[in-house]
Design goal:
Largest interface: A-B, 27 and 19 residues
Largest sheet of chain A: 6 strands, mixed
Number of strands of chain A: 10
Helix content of chain A: 25-40%
Distance between the termini of chain B: 39 Å
CATH architecture of chain A: 3-Layer(aba) Sandwich
Distance between the termini of chain A: 42 Å
Order of helices and strands of chain B: HHHHEEHHHHHHHHEE
Structural class of chain A: alpha/beta
Number of domains of chain B: 2
Number of helices of chain A: 9
Shape of chain A: globular
CATH superfamily of chain A: P-loop containing nucleotide triphosphate hydrolases
Strand order of the largest sheet of chain B: 1-2
Strand content of chain B: under 5%
Radius of gyration of chain B: 20 Å
Shape of chain B: globular
CATH architecture of the largest domain in chain B: Orthogonal Bundle
Radius of gyration of chain A: 18 Å
Largest sheet of chain B: 2 strands, antiparallel
Strand order of the largest sheet of chain A: 6-7-8-3-9-10
Order of helices and strands of chain A: EEEHEEHEHHHEHEHEEHH
Number of helices of chain B: 12
Oligomer: heterodimer
CATH topology of the largest domain in chain B: ABC transporter involved in vitamin B12 uptake, BtuC
CATH topology of chain A: Rossmann fold
Number of domains of chain A: 1
Helix content of chain B: over 70%
Strand content of chain A: 25-35%
């Protein structure tokens, strides 16, 4: 059953069209990796689905309900959560307060603080520390935990591995594997690490210049096709005759 | 001379309680909502004049008049934020300043139209409290009203501190203060949190206005002077620090009282000089430590927070913000 449906979505940054006519749909338990070069429109697409970037045109539906005009907090309460690029924790507050803010504004569901702590065991000893004192990997874990606590139907994870050490990335992906195995939500992942993005996804969406260049299962495409789409090569060739 | 000095210290400390109440709302607005309300002093006077009208024209007891006025002023703060401040905030740095200057002028002239320009006071309505005092050893006199105002300041600031730390609304307000977009992504209605902060700030301004009218007299044009005192207390105590406003208020009050030992004019001047000294010291510190230019240095000076040289970001050096 389709949880999230995005139709004909267009978003702008001023005069620049950052996302053009994107269509996608996602079922519960499915993982979609969005890949593309810098400036391809991946983060803007995620932010517009989350409700923190205005939609110029198109429709976003969650469980059949049109949420296009809803504000971000209203979408969270209906089932769209996001771990944003840069983590965006409340750095003056403790880890416990960061999690509490998410849980006390959450809708009911299976993700409790205890379950989140089981999924991210590294957070256990850190709960009373200010979030600003954490390492990058620990911050990412808090950001994802915070998103999970809202009990989403769709979780949006932006630049999960950006700026993290290999060991931290490994730890975060192990926890994400646990989340995925629960199968109770759809996951959209924006990831610069192409190998991880392909390995973790059921489907990929490759974007270039705001457009969808490729969409399908990773096994449907050769590595060369993905690379060409990643850099928008055939579009450039068409443009130059 | 020593007795006069001690007396000035005591009076200054108690005066700091009043400054803390008028400043704490401003601090909440700037620290949480990131909005400088230049009509804050006029809100205080409006609250005072409403209480005076309810007491002297309608005949309500002072306590009941205050109990009626504070929620009304809170509602006014909520509505003003929803109708005026939110739109002004979307217009960049300058628009909120222009809007609140205009709001202040409109309030002053509106109050003048309603109540005229006569000085008004609640002194006669609170009986002996306005002049009663306790005698301490060494001939020191402590006014009962200033003690009441100081105690009220401690209770109000303590309650605000607890609210911000231990309630859902308080956490929502703090999260919104840190990052409104991230707060919304956690399910917090950031606009509602900011409106609630505005409502609290305006009702606290009104409470300060009531105490001002109890201590002395108010006119529709008393607001800008209160804004200056509030701003000085906030900056001395560290912008956005709730308990800092009490410290800032006490420092300002003591400065004025000690200045008053020299002359009446020196009282106000001493307060302004201490404010400028603190501001300049912090500016110099921010300028030495940071590479973010004058904006970063000014932010550090206002907030009382140091600067990490590498990132140009402010970092706490005076303890945690509340």
């Amino acid at each position: 059953m389709t949880v999230l449906s995005v139709s004909n979505l267009t978003c702008r940054h001023g005069l620049l069209t950052a996302v053009r006519d994107i269509d996608l749909s996602l079922a519960r338990g499915e993982v979609l990796s969005i890949i593309g070069a810098n400036g391809a429109g991946k983060t803007t697409l995620l932010r517009s689905i989350a409700g923190v970037h205005p939609v110029a045109q198109g429709r976003i539906a969650l469980n059949g309900e049109d949420v296009t005009r809803l504000r971000a907090f209203e979408r969270v309460r209906r089932g769209i959560a996001m771990s944003p690029e840069g983590r965006r924790l409340f750095y003056d507050l403790t880890v416990a307060d960061n999690l509490r803010i998410a849980s006390e504004n959450a809708r009911p569901g299976p993700w409790s603080t205890a379950r989140v702590m089981d999924t991210f065991p590294q957070l256990g000893p850190l709960v009373h520390l200010p979030a600003g004192k954490l390492s990058g990997g620990q911050r990412q874990a808090v950001a994802i935990a915070r998103a999970l606590l809202s009990n989403p139907d769709v979780i949006l994870l932006d630049e999960v591995s950006l700026g993290l050490s290999p060991a931290a990335v490994e730890g975060v992906y192990q926890s994400l594997a646990t989340v995925r195995a629960a199968g109770d939500m759809a996951i959209i992942l924006v990831e610069q690490d192409l190998n991880r993005a392909l390995a973790f996804a059921d489907r990929i969406l490759c974007m270039a210049e705001g457009r969808a260049e490729l969409q399908g299962a990773p096994s449907d495409f050769t590595r060369a096709q993905i690379s060409d789409a990643y850099f928008g090569i055939h579009r450039q060739e068409a443009a130059h005759g | 001379m020593a007795d006069a000095f001690v007396q000035a210290l005591v009076q200054g400390t108690l005066l700091g309680g009043y400054y803390a109440i008028v400043a704490v709302g401003l601090s909440l607005m700037v620290g949480v909502v990131r909005f400088i309300n230049l009509a804050h002093g006029d809100m205080a006077v409006l609250g005072a004049l409403i209480v005076i009208a309810l007491t002297q024209a309608v005949g309500l007891p002072v306590g009941l008049a205050i109990a009626v006025t504070l929620p009304v002023m809170a509602a006014l703060g909520w509505i003003m934020h929803a109708v005026l401040f939110e739109r002004a905030m979307r217009g960049g740095f300058l628009l909120p300043i222009l809007v609140t200057i205009g709001l202040g002028a409109a309030l002053q002239n509106g109050m003048f139209g309603l109540w005229g320009s006569n000085t008004r006071s609640l002194g006669a309505d609170i009986g002996g409290l306005s002049w009663a005092s306790w005698s301490l050893p060494a001939g020191i006199l402590v006014g009962q009203l200033p003690v009441l105002i100081f105690a009220c300041a401690v209770v109000v600031i303590g309650a605000l501190h607890l609210m911000l730390r231990a309630t859902r609304l308080g956490r929502a307000i703090k999260a919104t203060a840190t990052d409104p977009e991230a707060a919304e992504l956690c399910g917090v209605d950031a606009r509602r949190a900011q409106r609630a902060a505005s409502a609290i700030a305006v009702s606290l301004a009104a409470l300060a206005g009531v105490f001002l009218a109890m201590r002395g007299q108010v006119t529709p044009y008393s607001g800008p002077a209160q804004l200056i005192f509030a701003f000085e207390a906030v900056v001395i105590g560290g912008l956005g620090s709730i308990w800092g406003t009490l410290i800032g208020g006490i420092i300002l009050g003591i400065s004025q009282s000690l200045g008053g030992l020299i002359s009446n004019q020196a009282a106000l001047l001493a307060g302004h000089l201490v404010f400028l000294t603190v501001l300049m010291a912090r500016l110099a510190q921010g300028w030495r430590a940071g590479h973010g230019g004058w904006r970063v240095a000014l932010r550090a000076a206002l907030t009382g927070r140091g600067i990490t040289a590498r990132q140009g970001q402010t970092t706490a050096w005076k303890g945690k913000r509340t």
